[in-house]
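User: I've been trying to design a sequence by hand for this structure and keep getting stuck. Would you show me what you'd pick, starting by listing the structure so we're on the same page?

Assistant: Good idea, let's start from the same input. This is the structure you sent:
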């Protein structure tokens, strides 16, 4: 009996010890999990608070890093440590999946995407029946997106998502799936899945998705975009999202031409004491609305108020830039435009518009420099014309060539940088009319033809034909021939044929003869005929036109540029008779015998029409011209 009592007492004692041990172990395990959960929820509240106070929501930045402050990141280290202990000793308990999720999210909030990806994938594979499965998949897709692995995020959804009618968390997966599609440039597919997400989501989550839908529809369907922004503003209780949604709604109404509605919404926001960050954005959009509605005076006033009230901000830099555009395009005051572009460049250097402003400043400075040089040279030329007996010693042909070069530079700026085609055409036509023998004339014909390719094909053909006729050996003529559909069969001696033609016109039309000879002089090669052509021009001026100043000018070119030619010896006696022995003047050397004119064969039948039908982009033309 005593033995039995002892056995019973021993059993009771051992049982109590075991129970005490189990209870103690459970208490430690539960306290570890509980403490980790409390700390994690504190950090997650900070994360959610930052998300809710985001001022300028955009789908572009859904995958940006969180960048939590150090103290919050340290708390997450503690969470990871405690949850890892749970997984080490209590992997088969009911909270193991939650511990894995907390570790994964802690890594995610710390921007440790590799660790986060590993833990979310482990939860999905280890606990496929867990209630946290969809949430783990959502965060896995989000993590992959933050790693810029958008294709992997999409594959994860396609392979692992449980598409079931009863799955109430499916909208979260649709949301990330749609945003990943957007990042891959598949906007239509992105919109489709975000619409699916919005049909299941509720409250603030739905309002955010509606905002994304408004953003994704901005370029393709402005009416839909406006509708989504308006719905987001009505649904959300977040002040920031409501205000920004209304600003975006107003901008879409403006794009649709509903200027008065846009003005009313923006003015209502401005007068409702909104945050300064939104107020400056509202003023910028209001100024843009006035400008688009052709109310230039109010636009200038609003831009000016924005630039003076919110200095050194991105909005004020855009304000200066767009104010400069008004002066450049509407008012045509390039000096004022240059001043405001310069302010835009310096206002907020980190702004994207700063670089664009720099380019504009450079182009307008170049325009101002050429414009000033043109005015100066025109003034000098007019003085010489009005005072032919003046003692001013200037090479008039050289001055005219400088004027032509400057006008071409202005035409190029108008065409490529200021988008003023009419002004470019004006200067180019002035060159070929008033400076037909200038060195820039062939290029002017070519640029005119290029400009007219998109405007009037017949005029383009006309300018290219004149180019080939007047400057057949120029590099630009070769390009013009391609447009005209003719083969380039010019032989090396075609310059001689031009020379022969000019000599044949000396008696009948000396002016025309000089024009042809000048085209030989302007040729880009070092042709031996150049000396002969310059000499011939001098001879015509001396003996046919009695323009002795011009004769001396061209004889001097022969003497200075072709000193070893036979013509240099002839003009030396004319220009410096006192240094030479008295000898009879040589006559102009006889023109060489005309050779058979080379054929310019037309291209195969149909080529011309086909060439006209080939689309040519402006950028390609500019590059082609610039290469020459």
């Amino acid at each position: 009996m005593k033995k039995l009592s002892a056995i019973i007492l021993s059993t009771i004692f051992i049982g109590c010890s075991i129970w005490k041990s189990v209870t103690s172990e459970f208490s430690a395990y539960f306290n570890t999990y509980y403490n980790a959960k409390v700390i994690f929820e504190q950090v997650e509240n900070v994360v959610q608070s930052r998300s809710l106070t985001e001022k300028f929501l955009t789908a572009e930045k859904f995958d940006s890093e969180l960048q939590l402050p150090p103290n919050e990141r340290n708390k997450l280290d503690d969470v990871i440590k405690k949850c890892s202990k749970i997984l080490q000793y209590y992997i088969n308990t009911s909270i193991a999946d939650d511990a894995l999720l907390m570790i994964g999210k802690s890594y995610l909030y710390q921007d440790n995407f590799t660790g986060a990806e590993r833990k979310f994938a482990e939860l999905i594979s280890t606990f496929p029946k867990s209630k946290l499965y969809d949430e783990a998949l959502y965060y896995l897709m989000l993590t992959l997106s933050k790693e810029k692995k958008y294709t992997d995020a999409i594959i994860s959804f396609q392979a692992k998502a449980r598409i079931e009618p009863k799955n109430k968390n499916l909208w979260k997966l649709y949301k990330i799936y749609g945003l990943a599609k957007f990042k891959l440039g598949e906007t239509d597919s992105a919109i489709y899945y975000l619409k699916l997400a919005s049909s299941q989501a509720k409250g603030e989550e739905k309002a955010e998705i509606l905002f994304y839908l408004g953003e994704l529809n901005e370029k393709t369907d402005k009416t839909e975009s406006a509708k989504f922004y308006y719905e987001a503003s009505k649904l959300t209780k977040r002040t920031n999202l409501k205000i920004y949604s209304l600003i975006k709604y107003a901008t879409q109404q403006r794009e649709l031409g509903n200027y008065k509605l846009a003005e009313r919404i923006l003015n209502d926001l401005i007068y409702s004491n909104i945050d300064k960050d939104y107020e400056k954005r509202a003023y910028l959009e209001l100024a843009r609305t006035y400008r688009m509605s052709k109310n230039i005076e109010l636009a200038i006033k609003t831009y000016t108020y924005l630039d003076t009230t919110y200095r050194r901000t991105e909005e004020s830099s855009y304000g200066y830039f767009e104010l400069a555009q008004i002066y450049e395009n509407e008012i045509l005051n390039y000096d004022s435009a240059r001043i405001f572009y310069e302010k835009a460049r310096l206002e907020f250097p980190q702004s994207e518009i700063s670089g664009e402003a720099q380019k504009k400043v450079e182009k307008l400075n170049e325009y101002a420099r050429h414009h000033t040089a043109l005015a100066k040279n025109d003034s000098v030329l007019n003085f010489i014309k009005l005072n032919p007996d003046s003692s001013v010693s200037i090479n008039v042909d050289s001055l005219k060539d400088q004027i032509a070069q400057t006008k071409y530079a202005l035409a190029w700026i108008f065409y490529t940088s200021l988008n003023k085609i009419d002004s470019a055409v004006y200067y180019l036509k002035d060159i070929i009319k008033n400076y037909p023998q200038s060195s820039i004339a062939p290029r002017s014909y070519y640029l005119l033809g290029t400009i007219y390719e998109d405007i009037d094909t017949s005029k383009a053909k006309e300018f290219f034909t004149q180019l080939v006729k007047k400057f057949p050996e120029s590099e630009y003529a070769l390009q013009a021939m391609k447009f005209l559909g003719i083969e380039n069969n010019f032989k090396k001696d075609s310059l001689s044929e031009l020379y022969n033609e000019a000599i044949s016109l000396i008696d009948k039309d000396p002016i025309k003869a000089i024009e042809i000879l000048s085209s030989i002089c302007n040729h880009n090669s070092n042709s031996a005929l150049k000396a002969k052509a310059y000499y011939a021009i001098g001879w015509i001026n001396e003996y046919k036109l009695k323009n002795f100043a011009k004769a001396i000018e061209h004889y001097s070119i022969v003497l200075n540029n072709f000193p070893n030619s036979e013509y240099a010896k002839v003009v030396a006696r004319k220009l410096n008779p006192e240094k030479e022995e008295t000898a009879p003047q040589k006559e102009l050397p006889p023109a060489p015998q005309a050779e058979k004119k080379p054929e310019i064969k037309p291209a195969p039948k149909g080529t011309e029409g086909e060439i006209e039908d080939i689309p040519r982009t402006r950028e390609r033309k500019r590059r082609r011209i610039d290469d020459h």
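That's my pick for every position. To get oriented when you compare it with your attempt: Confidence is low (pLDDT under 50) at residues 16-26, 588-618. DSSP finds 29 helices and no strands in the chain.
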